[in-house]
Amino acid sequence: MLDVRRLRLLCDLDLLGTIAAVARVNAYTPSAVSQQLSALEREAGVPLLERTGRRVTFTAANRVLVTHAATVLAALEQATAALASASDRLSGPLRIGAFPTAVRTLLPRALVSLGREHPALELRVTELDPVAVPRALRERQLDVGLVQDYDVAPAAPDADVDTTPLLEETVYLAVPARSGTTGLPAADDSAWITATPGTLCHTATIQVCRAAGFTPRTRHTADDFATVLALVAAGQGVSLVPELAVADAPPGVRLTALPHRRRTRIACRRGAASHPMVAACTAALRDSVAYSAGHV
């Protein structure tokens, strides 16, 4: 019989790449992880890892086992959700990861609602770029997270994560009010305020500008849209901002709607969508979006 805890370590190794990283995530020593994986090999009856010094690579048998292990772990998530549904009271930690604009605009109302309806929940919020959410879910650092993509930068499917739509927004070009820039093509020679390279917002900005025929010239880098809009108002450059961020745009910013969309989805580990805590969080976030839409 294959040990489920060891299967989880194997999946973590597939995700993280090194035994040292698996040890950090699971609060084990590297030696303990190696021992557990060796025990899993004995249970499987076939070699799973090839070791060369400190490096390990997967065998063909390991690839097969990892695929099945992911299905087993998803089934365990479903079983946990079913057991939790038998209780009439939600309690314990609910760890939520969200991007900065959502933390400022959508989460406060959702958190108040969750706290009022389920006072025994321990709500914990982490500000996180959407590209980091799937990994945080797989590493069990989060229970629910907000992921995103843009029409110009669609997300690849992730077999380990279940998602459900939450919000779709218009993308705007933000320019200083006194600027002569009248649209995206005219912004090719402007200074730009872009997000940190590697973030989804940075990737989307590059793609939108390239589709318009140019590469943006970055002057400032900022990841919080309130900061971005303040810099635009100060005449420091132009930027792309989503609809959630423009409600509090300061004076001195002119906004032009673009034919591009940012899409936000609620994400959880595969099999966990029916867990009562995840379902309650999903409902609260949707209510918050509906409330915001009705008070624009």
UniProtKB/TrEMBL annotation:
It comes from the Bacteria. Keywords: DNA-binding, Transcription, Transcription regulation. InterPro entries: LysR_HTH_N, LysR_subst-bd, WH-like_DNA-bd_sf, WH_DNA-bd_sf. The keyword Methyltransferase does not apply. The keyword Glycosyltransferase does not apply. One of its GO terms (molecular function) is DNA binding. One of its GO terms (cellular component) is protein-DNA complex. Residues 2-59 form the HTH lysR-type domain. Belongs to the LysR transcriptional regulatory family. This is DNA-binding transcriptional LysR family regulator. It comes from Pseudosporangium ferrugineum. The lineage of its organism: Bacteria, Bacillati, Actinomycetota, Actinomycetes, Micromonosporales.
